[in-house]
Amino acid sequence: MDDDANPFAQVPIEITISVGRARPLVRDLLRLTRDAVLPLDRRVEDPVELWVGDRLIARGELEELGGDSSGQLAVRLTEVANLRGGL
């Protein structure tokens, strides 16, 4: 089906970008205060994951935009899942 003919093509979706996970003990979580540092299981240079619901759709690298959007984060895609696969 042509994307222009698909009525769902213009429906916005929410993509969650996962940069890592933290697994503190509950007692450590309860002790968190402002400016506390919570280590993640990934390094800065590791790829981030893009999720729609519980489905991994892509991986990429974090970037900082320049120009008028300076300071805003973006993701440069390095891998994309086959999203057109049927059931």
Brief sketch in words of this structure:
This protein is mostly beta strands and 87 residues long. It contains one helix and four strands, in the order βαβββ.
The strand line-up of the biggest sheet is 1-2-3-4
Q: Sum up the overall morphology in one term.
A: extended
CATH class: Mainly Beta
User: So, the CATH homologous superfamily?
Assistant: SpoA-like
Overall CATH architecture: Roll
Taken in chain order, the helices and strands follow as EHEEE
What's the helical proportion of residues? Answer: under 10%
Q: Low-confidence stretches at least 5 residues in length (pLDDT < 50)?
A: none
Percentage beta strand = 25-35%
Number of helices: 1
The overall number of domains is 1
SSE layout and pairings?
Elements: E1 16-18, H1 26-30, E2 48-52, E3 55-64, E4 73-80
Antiparallel strand pairs: 1-2, 2-3, 3-4
Description:
- The protein has about 90 residues and is mostly beta strands.
- The chain has one domain: Roll (Surface presentation of antigens (SPOA)).
- Helices cover about 5% and strands about 30% of the residues.
- Strands 1-2-3-4 form a four-stranded antiparallel sheet, with no helix packed on it.
- The longest helix has 5 residues.
- It starts with 15 loop residues before the first strand and ends in a 7-residue tail after the last strand.
Features:
four-stranded antiparallel beta sheet, mainly beta, 87 residues, Surface presentation of antigens (SPOA)
